[in-house]
């Protein structure tokens, strides 16, 4: 491939953890950010952002998308070109839907394309994981689908997790932010053996439950002892929304990523009722949420 002057990269939102899979499993959703990079021969940086939360995105060198772009050039040991970046935001910021992963993946993929793809997809993935610090958002954002990542001796093993077509994700996105770093600060650095065993068993059950679409298994499997018990307190109304979702027919409800978005898994028959119940429950707590059913994106980042 040859060097190009402009590239547009589309990157999906992701929902990480899925209950017991803290820091190792995530799924790409059909909700997107679009990033256009244009080489500027005179040098310099300009960033323009459109979309609902546009004014919340940094437009100087600290912009995460640009930081990922720079990281690519540092990695290939070349001087970065001047660039004009146009961001069309579709993924809400700091809500637990992997907005930072879209920026990291977007910046790396765009730079790689501009330079004629000197890096393989798996090299881009390793760099993205190193930047984000955990694999569960950047891996599905790059590759699409539901993915489990495990660090091997030399690198990462990525496993494609089959997702039964009857399982519908419903996301309830509240009108407040919770940064991932803040939500990680409340987690203990050590866990008990009992909690480790609990999550190991439940993640195993979840993988098989997602594959065959068995409601009882998914219901049990969505429980977690490693992060949700500590993070619930950061999300007002968590218990009320959980009860409403399950009463309306959800298999279960979890925190999407680090929150505050809440994710219910359900079936087609119940998805509308589950969405309405989650919305109402949060409204009763004084929180307005954008609640919607989303299907899985299976393509990942595309340019
Ligand atoms: N499109 C984007 N362009 C630049 N920076 C972004 C973009 N999306 C997210 N970010 C950065 O990532 C931060 C949110 O990251 P984080 O707290 O991990 O939340 P999330 O769960 O959405 O990934 C934003 O405050 C912003 O600094
Ligand atoms: N495993 C991470 C996932 C963070 O996801 P995000 O969408 O909130 O960035 C964590 O739980 O901290």
Structure description:
The chain is α+β, with helices and mostly antiparallel strands. It has two domains: 6-160, Ribosomal Protein S5, domain 2, CATH 3.30.230; 168-293, Alpha-Beta Plaits (2-Layer Sandwich), CATH 3.30.70.890. 37% of the residues lie in helices and 24% in strands. It has helices at residues 64-75, 99-114, 121-132, 135-143, 180-185, 193-212, 215-221, 228-231, 238-247, 268-284; strands at 6-16, 25-40, 45-50, 82-88, 146-151, 156-160, 168-174, 252-255, 262-266, 289-293. Strand 1 (6-16) and strand 2 form a beta hairpin. Helix 6 packs antiparallel against helix 7 (215-221). The model has no long low-confidence stretch (mean pLDDT 97). Pathway: Amino-acid biosynthesis; L-threonine biosynthesis; L-threonine from L-aspartate: step 4/5. It holds the Pfam family GHMP_kinases_N. Its EC number is 2.7.1.39.
């Amino acid at each position: 491939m040859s060097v190009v002057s402009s590239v547009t990269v589309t990157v999906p939102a992701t929902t990480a953890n899925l209950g017991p899979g803290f820091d190792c499993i995530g799924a790409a959703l059909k909700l997107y950010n679009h990033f256009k990079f244009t080489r500027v021969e005179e040098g310099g940086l300009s960033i323009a952002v459109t979309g609902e939360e546009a004014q919340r995105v940094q437009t100087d060198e600290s912009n995460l998308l640009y930081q990922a772009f720079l990281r690519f050039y540092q990695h290939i040991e070349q001087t970065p070109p001047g660039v004009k970046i146009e961001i069309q935001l579709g993924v809400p910021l700091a809500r637990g839907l992997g907005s930072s992963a879209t920026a990291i993946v977007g910046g790396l993929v765009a730079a790689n394309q501009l330079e004629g793809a000197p890096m393989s997809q798996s090299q881009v993935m390793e760099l993205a994981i190193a930047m984000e610090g955990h694999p569960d958002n950047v891996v599905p954002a790059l590759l699409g689908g539901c993915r489990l990542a495990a660090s091997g001796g030399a690198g990462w093993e990525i496993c494609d997790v089959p997702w039964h077509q009857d399982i519908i994700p419903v996301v309830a996105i509240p009108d407040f932010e919770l940064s991932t770093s803040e939500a990680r600060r409340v987690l203990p650095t050590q866990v008990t053996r009992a909690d480790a065993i609990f999550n190991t068993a439940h993640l195993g059950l979840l993988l098989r439950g997602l594959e065959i679409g068995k409601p009882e298994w998914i219901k049990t499997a969505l429980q977690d002892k490693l992060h949700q018990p500590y993070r619930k307190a950061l999300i007002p109304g968590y218990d009320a929304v959980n009860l409403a979702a399950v009463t309306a027919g959800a298999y279960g409800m979890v925190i999407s990523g680090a929150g505050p978005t809440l994710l219910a898994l359900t079936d087609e028959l119940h998805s509308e009722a589950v969405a309405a119940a989650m919305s109402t429950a949060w409204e009763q707590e004084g929180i307005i949420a954008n609640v919607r059913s989303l299907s899985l994106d299976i393509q990942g980042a595309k340019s």
